[in-house]
Design goal:
two-stranded antiparallel ribbon; eight-stranded parallel beta sheet; alpha/beta; 12 helices; 38% helix
Length: 329
């Protein structure tokens, strides 16, 4: 798998990583055995970047990754990014302080069984947090103390991304980017590239819509966020189907499926589109099975999307999706 520099971390990672939210919770039940199989299949397929968070299953995702990497040995060559902040009230900016940063990262260090975390990202805090100098001062202290090697941010909006990118020690920005969510292409990716900040593209398949496997009658488990967060009842609605109404997304995904070239899946086309965007360091699709993990990694081997298909994807966005995209995204 081709590798790219992960922003200011100084690390190189494969262009397709693995998002590990589903290994913790909120995507229906995934057993420990299945989670470890997913991790193994991904890494054996060339994945060298794992993205998790301290709240994914209340630490379960981190612990599974820690167990997996311990079994692989000290020279596993994997970069693990975790996130912190959602253990606090996510709407209270004053919760994001050095003392809490220390407590949260210490818990993640224990879960992952490491002395120093490779990369820690603020986990979609209130916008005010990104504007405070004290936020970055506290993160710098964590680096100086050896708790973390580098830090970045995971954002909901373009404005939050632009605010973070200009900070001198922010290594990465994680943002929703997919063929249904194109706003970051306009300003975020060019500025990040100019400043040497890595871009981690999340929700690349619009919560599975871009697999092309769902229809209007698809049902999800009660403990799956695709059931309980469609209107943003529990967290930002953009995290679920990229904020696109489910029925609209299903119809648009059918059109994307029609554009998929022979020898590829619709999901692989969607991932390849992201890989082709200048400034993207790594894309982090999730997987609930080893088969999915392998197929996602294989997207890195596809040829770049041709102009005719690009035009078709743009037409799907303009015709089906654009009117439903919130201005702040």
């Amino acid at each position: 798998m081709d590798s790219r520099l992960l922003g200011r971390t100084g690390r190189s990672v494969g262009v397709v990583g693995l998002g590990c939210w589903q290994l913790g919770a909120d995507w229906g039940s995934v057993s420990d055995e299945a989670a470890l199989e997913v991790l193994g299949a991904a890494v054996d397929s060339g994945v060298t970047f794992l993205d998790t968070a301290d709240v994914y299953g209340d630490g379960r995702s981190e612990k599974l990754i820690g167990s997996f990497l311990a079994a692989r040995g000290p020279n596993h060559g994997i970069t693990v990014a975790t996130k912190m902040g959602r253990r606090a009230d996510p709407h209270v900016a004053d919760a994001y302080t050095l003392s809490w940063f220390r407590a949260w990262t210490d818990r993640s260090r224990e879960n992952l069984d490491v002395e120093t975390l490779d990369l820690v990202q603020l986990h979609c805090p209130p916008s005010e947090v990104y504007r405070r100098e004290s936020t970055y001062d506290a993160l710098d202290v964590l680096v100086d103390e050896g708790r973390i090697a580098a830090y970045g941010v995971s954002v909901e909006t373009v404005d939050e991304a632009l605010e973070a990118i200009i900070r001198p020690h922010v290594a990465t920005v994680q943002i929703i980017l997919n063929v249904f969510r194109r706003k970051p292409l306009e300003q975020v990716l060019p500025l990040a590239a100019a400043e040497g900040v890595g871009i981690i593209a999340r929700v690349p398949l619009a919560s599975g819509l871009l697999s092309g496997k769902y229809d209007e009658h698809t049902q999800f488990a009660a403990d799956d966020h695709r059931s309980y967060n469609r209107s943003g009842q529990s967290f930002d609605v953009g995290e679920t189907f990229a904020g696109v109404p489910f029925e609209v997304g299903v119809a648009a995904a059918r059109e994307v499926a029609d554009l998929t070239p022979a020898g590829a899946t619709t999901a692989q086309l969607a991932l390849r589109w992201i890989i082709d965007q200048p400034g993207v360091s790594v894309v982090i699709p999730g997987a609930r099975s080893a088969v999915q993990a392998v197929a996602n990694a294989q997207a890195a081997s596809l040829p770049s999307v041709d102009e005719e298909t690009l035009d078709g994807l743009r037409g799907v966005y303009d015709g089906r999706i654009r009117q439903h995209v919130h201005a702040r995204w």
